[in-house]
Amino acid sequence: MKSIINLIITLVITILLLPHFTEAGFLNRKPEQRNASVIEREYRSDDSLNTRLKLLEELKKISDPNEDLNIWISLLEFSKRPETEIAIMSHLASIKSHGAIVPIAKKLKVPRLNVRKTAARILAETGDDRMFPEILPLAFSKSPIDRIYFLEALEYIYDKRFEQIVSDMIQDEFKSVQIYALKCTVSNDLESLCPVIRKSISESENSEFIINGLRALVSLNDKNSRYTIMKVLKSDSSEVRAEALVTSRSLRISLPSYFIAEVLKQETVRDIKLELLDIIIRDSSSSGADGLIKVINTTQDPVIKSQAIHALSLKGRTFQQNLKEITEDKDPRIRAQAWYSYISLAGKLNRDEIFEALKKDKSRYVRSACLFAMLRHDPKALKTMLYEIYVEEKDPVFKDMIRKALTKTENY
To answer: Is residue 252 situated within a structural domain?
Structure first.
């Protein structure tokens, strides 16, 4: 009977202590008690991301860089999540094993951008040519996606031997490949490919590629882009034309006024017209006047028209008669600009013409323009006129303007 009681007591104690033994002896085993193969099996069998990351940390502590290299490579090939792939590649990079080059290079083909970029950065640090047999097939693949992956990798692992491949891809049949080739050219500062970019822009009908090509030329500081800019300024796309002007300004490339004037005749977008006019205004030569006259005679936009009048006045006295004719325009804003430009440009002024404008034009805006132009151009001649007008003037605002002008002419 005692033996039965003792047996029961022993069983009870064993049952009570079993959780303690289990936790201490099995679940809480120290890392050094586990080997790499066991961890590898657990990694493959457990799909939890957090668990896998913890197992990788454990594997780092117990694995031998040489003996367990194949296990790391096997896990890299098995993994399909960016977090684990990047963690494994980072570890392989830290142990600097040449045996890891090809497995890492294979990750340049996966559809996960962060993984591809990490692989490319690691391969760039190694500089090992053993990666190229894995990379080159991407360049010659029929799939445009593979070619894009290749160009992405070249941001980090470009080699002079790839220049011709990049050049060919700038002229690729797929727009996306072309644009990535432009990015690759800029990121690697391949100024030697500027002629290829210019040629491709000139031959392309795709607005997005042309715009990206022009921006690439700016990034590469290509000063030989004048004729390319002139060509695309005739594009049907207003976005392309606007980008061409930005390119010209950014590269400080001057465009001939006679050409800009021709473009101006056909331009329909207001902001582009103003930009074109500004180019002609900055050119002090007489070229481009025909285009300005065309704009003045055809446009209904008062701002555009006024700018064109101002630009024409800068071309010299040859066009003084054209300005005089514009003083008859119905729009007082246009008459004001025309009178101001005409008076400022004139050598000897017709006193009667100016007197009539100051006295009889119904627009205070026009009369003010004449007044200030005369005050600046010939204050002595203005003085005599103003006394005659001041006596009969009925507009109190303009009369006060005359009084102030007379004060300024007292020394003449």
So the answer is: no
What is the spatial distance between Cα 310 and Cα 138, in angstroms, rounded to a whole number? 58
User: pTM higher than 0.85 for the full model?
Assistant: no
Q: Is 347 exposed, middle or buried (0-12, 13-18, 19+ CB in 10 A)?
A: exposed
- Comparing 28 with 64, the larger pLDDT belongs to 64
* Residues 285, 95: Cα–Cα separation, whole Å: 68
Q: Is the pLDDT of residue 342 over 90?
A: no
Domain assignment present for residue 85? The answer is no
Alpha-carbon distance of 110 to 316, in angstroms, equals 66
pLDDT exceeds 60 at position 340: yes
| Counted domains in the chain | 1
Structural domain contains residue 253: no
pLDDT the model gives residue 356? 75
* 186 inside domain: no
Domain that holds residue 29: 1-33
Cα dist. 6→1, 10, 18, 19, 20 in Å?
9, 6, 18, 21, 22
* 189 three-class SS: coil
| pLDDT tens, position by position, 109-167 | 999 999 999 999 999 888 778 888 888 999 999 999 999 999 999 989 998 989 999 99
| Amino acid (1-letter code) at residue 256 | P
Question: What DSSP character marks residue 22?
Answer: H
Say what the pLDDT of residue 169 is.
97
d(CA 154, CA 167): 13
Q: What count of other Cβ atoms lies within 10 Å of the Cβ of residue 48?
A: 9
Specify whether the backbone of 10 is left (phi greater than 0), alpha (psi in -120 to 50) or beta.
alpha
Cβ-based neighbour number of residue 156 at 10 Å: 19
